[in-house]
Write a structure and sequence with these properties.
By secondary structure, the chain is an alpha/beta fold. It has 4 domains: about 130 residues, Rossmann fold; about 110 residues, Putative Large Serine Recombinase, Chain B, Domain 2 (Hect, E3 ligase catalytic domain fold, Alpha-Beta Complex), CATH 3.90.1750; about 130 residues, no CATH class; about 60 residues. About 45% of the residues lie in helices and about 10% in strands. The protein contains 16 helices and 13 strands. The strands form 4 sheets. Strands 2-1-3-4-5 form a 5-stranded mixed sheet, sandwiched between helices. Strands 8-12-13 form a 3-stranded mixed sheet. A 3-stranded antiparallel sheet has the order 9-10-11. Helix 5 runs antiparallel to helix 6, helix 7 crosses helix 10 and helix 14 runs antiparallel to helix 15. The protein is elongated, with a radius of gyration of 34 Å.
């Protein structure tokens, strides 16, 4: 096979995270290959790139497949690459390519390592041995990485990767400012707030994801970039077992956010296990709906009751740009200014909350314990079963161990582990079904502001707590009934003043927070 004649060459580059892949980005691989093409007098017909796809795995390599098609069709009769490792690390693919090279007199040259000589048995043997050696090397690396991961899982140590939110780069030391936001977000979910309302708070405070490097088209990586949180990424963060100090391992059959928890980790927890499980139970509740199709603007829609038909009220425009009103539907027993009613209701409720807090330092009372089994006992049983499973694996670790017997005993333990985990989930779901909403309210600050200036207290209340959360507070504290307004202007009315009469809004205090 002559390599000095004119040929149409394909430059093939593969980006990967190994040392050579990091050293030779796409632009550098192409530049080296073009210089070699010039020395050989070859014409480069195309450059094909596979981005971060290992040469040993089963994933498709579109660039590699296109290269084979061009070679079979006769559109090219030469291949240029940095090294045989960039071209192949899978002996099956390599053998098929070597057969094609021999059948169609295709020249192959590397900028590191020279040419593949397929004209002699010795050259063909060397090429095949290189392919086998390359795959063996990759498999050995894979085994070492897998063993290291197993050790990390067993010991609960940090397995590396990007910096996790709430922790420093070592994956173990808490980053207190981020941990505080994560802790607060968990408590807000338990208090009934939505993921999107938390996102708005984080966006306002400039809370962003940990900086990550992005792989560029040429194979290099960008400078670290922080991004805004999205509903999906924030939910994933709240689902993360790491928050409760657990080690989680993804498996082939588990879904995202549902990996296998293998035990306690070495890093400190940000929230308690009960809080984490309650948060997951709330977010996984299929009947939970905190983001209606049309975003709410008013406090009492579908919450206040009509004083005539006792049906829930809704809001509608009054026309001519005169704002929104509460009404009970087609019959329109009532037509009341929505802003005025909401203002009166919230002022009254805040005044009552402040009065209760001053009257009783232990108000509101703590929530009742869930009726299910205590999660503390279940968690202890869960830890015991995990220890039994580890001890069983240790006992059957010899080469001559009875694997069938091991599988039977291990299955019994894992079945009980799943049952315990289900019991924990049910118990925390019961306790999260009716969260102690006022536990999320800064009562001392509310009392201080209310005693100083009721208008300031109302403004702070609306700015600090989302509309969804304030609606949930109303649902458990009061029943609001809106009656028809009296005809004519109320007594004492002066021009320019609103017509709203607060006596036509009944606010029945239940105090069941």
């Amino acid at each position: 096979m002559k390599i000095t004649e004119q040929r149409n060459a394909i430059i093939y580059a593969r980006i990967s995270s190994d040392r050579e892949g990091r050293e030779y980005g796409v632009e550098r691989q192409e530049a080296h290959c073009r210089r070699l093409a010039e020395r050989r007098g070859w014409q480069v017909v195309t450059v094909l790139v596979d981005n971060d796809i290992t040469g040993t795995g089963s994933k498709r390599r579109p660039g590699y497949e296109q290269m084979l098609d061009l070679l079979r069709d006769g559109a090219a009769n030469a291949i240029l690459a940095v090294s045989d490792k960039r071209l192949n690390r899978n002996y099956r693919n390599a053998f098929a390519l070597l057969d094609l090279i021999q059948e169609q007199d295709i020249a192959v040259e590397f900028t590191k390592g020279g040419a593949i000589n397929m004209n002699t048995a010795e050259g063909r043997g060397i090429a095949r041995r290189k392919a086998i050696d390359a795959q063996e090397e990759s498999e050995e690396i894979g085994e070492r990485v897998a063993d290291a991961k197993k050790d990390n899982v067993r010991d609960g140590t940090y397995r590396g990767g990007g910096r996790p939110f709430g922790y420093e780069r070592d994956g173990v030391t808490l980053r207190e400012d981020e941990a505080a936001y994560l802790r607060d977000a968990t408590h807000r979910i338990l208090a009934g707030e939505s993921v999107r309302s938390i996102l708005r708070l984080w966006e306002a405070d400039g809370v962003r994801t940990p900086a990550r490097r992005k792989r560029l088209p040429d194979g290099t990586r960008s400078e670290p970039i922080s991004r805004s949180w999205t509903p999906s990424t924030l939910r994933n963060l709240l689902f993360r077992p790491r928050n409760a100090g657990h080690m989680e391992v993804a498996t082939a059959v588990t879904k995202k956010r549902q990996g296998e928890i293998t035990g306690k980790a070495v890093w400190p927890a940000i929230v308690s296990e009960d809080e984490w499980r309650q948060c997951r139970a709330v977010l996984e509740n299929p009947v939970r709906r905190t983001t209606p199709g049309n975003a709410r603007r008013w406090l009492g829609g579908r919450l206040y009751l009509c004083g005539v038909c006792t049906g829930p009220v809704c809001t509608t425009g009054r026309g001519s740009g005169n704002g929104s009103v509460y009404t009970c539907g087609p019959k329109r027993h009532i037509t009341r200014d929505a802003a005025a009613v909401d203002d009166h209701v919230e002022r009254t409720v805040l005044g009552q909350v402040v009065w209760e807090a001053l009257r009783d330092p232990f108000w509101p009372p703590p929530p009742e314990a869930p009726a299910g089994p205590p999660t503390g006992q279940l968690s202890a049983r869960h830890a015991t079963l995990r220890a039994q499973l580890e001890a069983l694996a240790e006992a059957f670790g010899d080469d001559d161990a009875d694997l069938a017997l091991y599988r039977v005993r291990a299955r019994r333990i894992t079945d009980e582990i799943k049952a315990v985990e289900q019991g924990i989930a049910e118990a925390v779901a019961a306790s999260a079904a009716q969260p102690a909403l006022l536990a999320g309210v800064d009562l001392p600050e509310l009392v201080r502001r209310h005693q100083a200036d009721t208008d300031d207290a109302l403004a702070w209340w609306r700015e600090t707590y989302s509309l969804e959360y304030r609606r949930k507070i109303l649902q458990v504290l009061v029943v609001v009934t809106v009656r028809p307004g009296s005809s004519g202007r109320p007594p004492g009315w002066v021009p320019g003043a609103p017509y709203f009469n607060p006596e036509t809004v009944d606010i029945d205090w239940t105090g069941a927070a």
